[in-house]
Specification:
The complex is a heterodimer of chains A (775) and B (492). Chain A contains 19 helices and 29 strands. With 775 residues, chain A is an alpha+beta fold. In chain A, the strands form 7 sheets. Chain A has an 8-stranded mixed β-sheet with strand order 3-5-1-12-9-10-11-20, with helices on both faces. A 5-stranded mixed β-sheet of chain A has the order 7-15-14-13-8, sandwiched between helices. A 4-stranded mixed β-sheet of chain A has the order 16-27-28-29, sandwiched between helices. In chain A, a hairpin with a 5-residue loop joins strand 17 and strand 18. The radius of gyration of chain A is 27 Å and the shape is globular. The N and C termini of chain A lie far apart (85 Å). Chain B has 17 helices and 20 strands. In chain B, strand 10 (255-257) and strand 11 (261-265) form a beta hairpin. Chain B starts with 12 loop residues before the first strand and ends in an 18-residue tail after the last helix. Classes of the chains: A alpha+beta (775), B alpha+beta (492). At the A-B interface, helix 1, helix 3, strand 27, helix 17 and helix 19 of A face helix 2, helix 3, helix 4, helix 5 and helix 6 of B.
Chain lengths: 775, 492
């Protein structure tokens, strides 16, 4: 018998750093996105015709010139839809037509599509439509929607505790204000895209760049009037998603499928960047109105806040997005009495949608503004006001009834405060500013507490399908989709670790509705939590079968069998997994298993506004230092220190990437990314020439990222915590550091009330305002 | 002479694609390199992210003989018209590692976690491979600058920059063999004419031929670096019948250093122009560093930047402030005029039919005080909200005797601010003078509100740039927060 060598943890084991599973293919250009083929024979190309008006009656849609343009195969409009002309993801709304009829409700709304032999031909033909409109007055922003009384796209929510009116009246001090928060385009580098392949009979397969293949399947079936089982949706990878492909891919997939069924040919649809930005939804911009009561020690006693959101022309996900804004209007702070109300306004702009954080970032910005107001009003350091208001013993219940008992925020913030030398640097910066006429520095440390789970409880489920082959390799399927976040490598690590296999023996198949059905969107940061556990369940089933087989075959006690890095331990000997799989196969043991997971303990009753909607909270904190040029409003992020709570990291390489990338994306949202609509409702920042996401030189000059040492109290996969969304909100520290620098021009006596995005222009005007000049 | 004899011209485009010599006889004159790579060559590692040269996902390396050596520039394939690759070595992501082992930056990017979704990654690899070939020891600023034209939405850039810092060292050749001899074999006989379906791409090889062509083809579209025409092709779906490319005319690509001036041909790229004018003043160099990303600077030309007459182009205010003159060349021979007289209205110029910008003569500022500031929403790779370039001459007593305050982004054309200039004359240039000039700007400009900035912001900042100039002249005050000029108190 061979002497057993001590097993080193193989590379890729759960909890070890490992590159993205596609990293090697990314850097060589071999990683294939949908547009990269290989193209099926006879591939045709679809292009959308978009509305030229934000709000108008369509008097005539004359598509003759489109139809007769060179290379055109067919033109499709609402009348060509065999099923329902709707791709709304929200049950009962029916307010997201594939092709508008009667009235156009936003500039860039799809009216028809043209399919041609080439994309260029389709694109040229789409411009030949002769459309007569009767213009109607558009309501472009929230103020206009209020004035016009457009109403809500979905029912608003109120979270309340106590008698907020009385508590405000009784508070020793109170103040009120407003904050504007801009939206954000996802700017995934790969635009929306879908490729539909007609099958036999009524079947159709769609390759879709979507975070939610099951919903795409349902939408294709609904619009084409097919059973779900006739539609297969597959996702290998997305070139970025960030929430922008949770529902916004539906329309493109549906149009490709519609055209493919009509022509009996494969059809691809890929909008140009400008059209993608015009025709697809974004992060909601919000107007926050607040009143806060507090005492001289900085303790908040009462909060009354309204979050009005520009939702656009339809509901889409605006209901849950604005709900989540309210769920996070407390951030990490206890409000003894409170009321927060959402107003999801209907506007004549593209329907806003999911975006990393899903309303949470806007909610938190409101909370941090309150902290800042109280700090300026009391003369306390904002960090001290934050600390005075953290959840803690006796003050641990959120407005929605869930308790915050993990005590992480105070410990994590204290650790970061020490690590980044917050107090000493604050003093240094004050001294620097006193001696610097033009350049002013600012510093801020802000926490993040983010609730993990879909607030719609039913989505908190996942399935997996694991095949063990007789050579000991494993094919892994689950319902999660890969958009760059590293989900596939993490779940593969779960499976490899469960079997004791090297990571390269586990292959993850493209996500397919044909393999794992009835899945949820890869969203709400839940991908690893849900799919990791489902895959682990499948592994447990398979290992159980193998162990039972081995115990019987070789007469072993169950505890004598273990799956280890160098093979399967069978009592005194070790057998390669491949050999055991072969033996099991020969004994007619099934080597394929499904796994299923549902998140425990969560519930939520929207009517009462109470429940336990989150499995747990992910925490983090960031301290940002900026330098501001008070002549131009230009600024630079000089240093950022982050301490983030990922529980026990499943893969530190991936998690650090999520933290850094989320931070920089959040920084872009709050600084240079500005969605600018003109009076006619045309988005004028619809391409990278005009819409400015951060570039390499914008990242913090010094960027220290560490993980908080701890594990998830909840029994999640590997005791990890979700990491997709929470880090984005660490960037709130940048906005507050800018505010701190601005406040220095007036002796830190006046709250700058800096709105977002804090473009150089907004920064300069805030400076001018504080200096008392007419802005 | 002067006639463009199609029959006598080379009737095909030829260049090296990786190892292969490519010869294209029939070619849509506005076919982009990206579409050709992806659709005709099946090379789909190069991605389309924006089709306007602003995201860098389509970056390829283009090698050219630069004296004896081959210099590789990062180029956005999405707006690069295929015939303009004539005589070059095109290296796409498939060629970077194909059969030769990975480039060090590829390995390092994997190790550092520099890719997430992976869509932007090939473009980053190509941009960094160009950097590694050009600069044996790039510092952090050089790395950021090399990828300023590449957008990544996932990583936050830190791991990409770390990978570059580790791997782009010691001069890593972009191509393992010296491709110079093969490129040299393609040189000579610069003029060519290709086309398809009656549409033509004409590349004259000398000025005389160009003059004849311009007379014979009044409707033809002139092409310099293509960063403007490329957009019209990809966004407006423009299909000009005839394109005349100026890139094959050596006379237009010259930089001539004279004692009192630098003379720059219209075909000189922004990158080459930066090498020539950046020496005049650190702020000039910084302005030109912030002119697009490396991909734009590598191809965009002086003639294109001025000829398109953008009110927000950054070159014009600089040239106006420096007192540069343009040489225009046309059927009646060359003539000169000051740059400030070139712009006659929104997107309109003094060019007559058949005329082109041939060169700019840029006087050296000598002892004059110079100041250049660009203000944009995002610091790097953004279009100016406004740009100010100022030059002052003073007498022995320190009194201003001549002032040129030129602005972009403040009016329909880049132009001077006469009222503000007048406010500066005859007195020392100090903060009081700057305040007076700033106030006078209200008489000079009534700027627009748009997505880059409001009129109020533009006017306020325009004045503050004059104040910044005064502070910098007085010295001892740090006035900038970003870029290589940040932090230092000027003249301190």
């Amino acid at each position: 018998m061979l002497e057993r060598t001590p097993a080193l943890p193989p590379a890729g084991r759960l909890g070890t750093p490992h590159p993205h599973d596609s990293a090697q293919r990314h850097v060589t250009g071999e990683a294939r996105f949908i547009d990269d083929g290989p193209d099926p024979a006879g591939l045709a190309h679809a292009y959308l015709g978009l509305s030229d008006h934000a709000h108008a009656r369509i008097l005539a849609l004359d598509l003759d010139a489109v139809r007769s343009a060179p290379g055109v195969l067919c033109v499709l409009a609402a009348d060509d839809i065999p099923g329902v002309n709707d791709v709304s993801p929200t049950a009962g709304k029916h307010d997201d037509p594939v092709f508008a009829t009667g009235t156009t409700r936003f500039h860039g709304q799809p009216l028809f599509c043209v399919v041609a032999e080439t994309r260029d031909a389709a694109r040229r033909a789409a411009r030949l439509a002769a459309i007569r409109y009767e213009e109607l007055p558009p309501a472009i922003d929230i103020a206009a929607a209020r004035a016009a009384g457009t109403g809500f796209v979905t029912e608003g929510l109120t979270l309340a505790r106590g008698d907020v009116g009385a508590a405000l009246a009784a508070a020793p001090r109170r103040l009120a204000g407003r904050m504007s928060v801009g939206g954000q385009d996802h700017f995934y580098l790969e635009t929306q895209i879908a490729l539909a392949l007609p099958g036999e009979g009524d079947e159709v397969t769609v390759l879709s760049s979507t975070q939610h293949p099951t919903e795409v399947q349902h939408m294709v079936a609904r619009v084409l009037d097919l059973p779900f089982a006739a539609v297969t949706v597959e996702v290998r990878r997305m070139g970025g998603g960030f929430g922008g492909k949770e529902t916004q891919g539906n329309l493109f997939a549906v149009v490709a499928a519609l055209a493919a069924r009509r022509l009996g040919r494969a059809v691809k649809i890929r909008p140009d960047r400008d059209d993608d930005m015009r025709a697809t939804g974004k992060r909601h911009d919000m107007e926050i109105a607040y009143a806060v009561g507090f005492d001289g020690s900085g303790r908040i006693l009462a909060v009354d806040a309204t979050y009005a959101a520009r939702c656009g022309a339809s509901a889409d996900l605006s209901g849950p997005v604005t709900d989540r804004a309210l769920f996070h209007c407390d951030n990490a702070y206890f409000y003894p009495a409170m009321r927060a109300t959402s107003e999801p306004w209907r506007t004549n702009t593209v329907s806003n949608t999911a975006f990393r954080g899903f309303g949470g970032p806007q909610g938190m910005l409101g909370a941090e503004r309150l902290i800042e107001e109280v700090a300026f009003a009391t003369g306390l350091d904002p960090l001290d006001v934050r600390k005075a208001n953290f959840y803690g013993p006796g003050r641990d219940e959120t407005p929605y009834g869930q308790r915050v008992t993990d005590g992480i925020a105070p410990r994590l913030v204290a650790a970061l405060e020490a690590r980044c030398a917050y107090r000493a640097r604050r003093d240094e910066i004050r001294a620097f500013n006193a001696g610097s006429r033009v350049v002013k520095r600012g510093l801020a440390l802000t926490p993040v507490k983010f609730g993990i789970s879909f607030t719609a409880t039913l989505y908190n489920q996942a399935g997996a399908l694991v095949h063990l082959y007789t050579d000991g390799s494993v094919a892994l399927n689950h319902g999660g989709t890969e958009m760059g976040q590293g989900l596939l490598v993490k779940v593969a690590q779960v499976v490899a670790t469960a079997f004791g296999l090297p990571l390269d023996r586990v292959r993850t198949a493209p996500t397919s509705t044909g393999k794992v059905p009835n899945t949820s969107a890869t969203a709400a940061s839940s991908g690893s939590d849900l799919n990791g556990m489902a895959a682990l369940e499948a592994c447990r089933t398979l290992k159980g079968r193998l162990a039972a087989f081995a115990a019987e075959r070789w007469g072993l006690a169950p505890d004598a069998i273990a799956f280890e890095a160098d093979g399967v331990r069978l009592g005194e000997r070790t057998m390669p997994l491949a050999e055991l799989a072969g033996e099991a196969y020969a004994a007619r043991i099934p080597l394929s298993a499904t796994g299923f997971h549902r998140t425990p303990t969560i519930h939520w009753d929207r009517t009462s506004g109470k429940g336990h909607p989150f499995h747990y909270f992910a925490h983090g904190a960031a301290c940002s230092e900026v330098a501001v040029d008070t002549l131009t409003g230009e600024y630079r992020v000089e240093r950022v220190d982050i301490l983030h709570d990922v529980g026990r990291s499943l893969n530190p390489t991936i998690d650090r990437g999520q933290v850094e990338g989320g931070f920089v994306q959040g920084m872009g949202w709050l600084t240079t990314e500005e969605l600018w609509w003109d009076g006619a409702g045309r988005l004028r920042t619809h391409a990278p020439a005009t819409y400015k996401i951060p570039v390499a030189s914008d990242r913090p000059r010094i960027f220290n990222v560490d993980f908080f040492d701890g594990e998830n109290e909840e029994p999640t996969i590997g005791r990890s915590k979700a990491v997709g969304e929470p880090p984005l909100m660490l960037a709130i520290s940048v906005l507050h550091a800018l505010s701190d620098a601005i406040a220095s021009v007036a002796g830190h006596r006046t709250c700058p009330r800096l709105d977002a995005p804090a473009t150089p222009e907004r920064v300069l005007f805030a400076i001018e305002r504080l200096r008392g000049a007419a802005p | 002479m002067g006639a463009f004899d199609h029959a006598a011209m080379r009737d095909h485009v030829r260049f090296l694609l990786g190892d292969d010599l490519v010869r294209i006889a029939s070619c849509d004159p506005t076919r982009t390199l990206l579409d050709w790579l992806r659709d005709e060559r099946g090379l789909r590692g190069t991605k389309e992210g924006c089709a306007e040269g602003d995201c860098g996902a389509c970056t390829v390396a283009v090698g050219r003989l630069d004296r004896a050596a081959v210099r590789y520039d990062p180029v956005c394939a999405c707006i690069r018209l295929l015939p303009t690759l004539d005589g070059t070595h095109v290296v796409a992501i498939e060629h970077l590692s194909g059969g030769r082992g990975p480039h060090p930056v590829q390995d390092a990017t994997v190790r550092h976690g520099g890719s997430q979704c992976g869509f932007c990654t090939p473009g980053f690899m190509m941009a960094l491979a160009c950097l590694a070939a050009a600069d044996p020891a790039p510092d952090a600023a050089a790395i950021d600058d090399a990828v300023a034209g590449n957008l990544c939405r996932c990583t936050g850039y830190r791991p990409i920059a770390d990978a570059a810092a580790e791997s782009c060292r010691g001069g890593v050749p972009l191509w393992p063999e010296d491709i110079g001899p093969r490129l040299a074999a393609l040189a000579g006989e610069a003029a060519f004419a290709v086309g398809e379906g009656g549409r033509r791409f004409l590349a004259p090889g000398d000025l005389a031929t160009l003059r004849g062509l311009l007379a014979a083809e009044p409707e033809a579209v002139l092409l310099g670096g293509g960063t403007d025409l490329g957009l019209r092709v990809t966004k407006d779906l423009a299909r000009p019948e005839t394109v005349i490319w100026l890139g094959g005319i050596p006379d237009l690509a010259r930089v001539e250093e004279r004692a009192d001036a630098v003379v720059i041909g219209a075909g000189v790229t922004i990158a080459a122009l930066r090498r020539a004018l950046g020496r005049l003043h650190p702020q000039v160099d910084e302005l030109l560093r912030r002119f697009g990303g490396a991909q734009v600077r590598a191809v965009g030309t002086l003639g294109g930047s001025l000829g398109t007459a953008s009110p927000i182009g950054d070159l014009a205010p600089l040239l106006i402030a420096l007192g540069a003159t343009l040489t225009l060349d046309g059927p009646d021979g060359p003539r000169t005029l000051p740059v400030e007289d070139f712009f006659t209205g929104y997107r309109a110029t003094a060019l007559r039919a058949g005329e082109i910008v041939a060169a700019a003569s840029v006087p050296r500022p000598g002892g004059d005080a110079l100041h250049v500031s660009k203000v944009s929403k995002r610091f790097d790779e953004d279009i100016s909200t406004l740009c100010g370039a100022f030059r002052l001459a003073r007498d022995g007593e320190g009194r201003v005797v001549a002032a040129r305050l030129a602005f972009g982004g403040m009016a329909a054309v880049p132009r001077r601010a006469p009222a503000a200039e007048a406010a500066l004359l005859g007195r020392p240039f100090d903060e009081d003078a700057a305040d007076r000039a700033a106030a006078a700007l209200r008489d000079d400009f009534a700027p627009l509100d748009d997505w880059r900035g409001s009129a109020r912001y533009r006017l306020l900042v325009a004045g503050n740039l004059v104040r910044r100039f005064a502070l910098e002249e007085a010295g001892g005050v740090a006035t900038r927060v970003a870029g290589p000029l940040a932090g230092a108190a000027s003249h301190a």
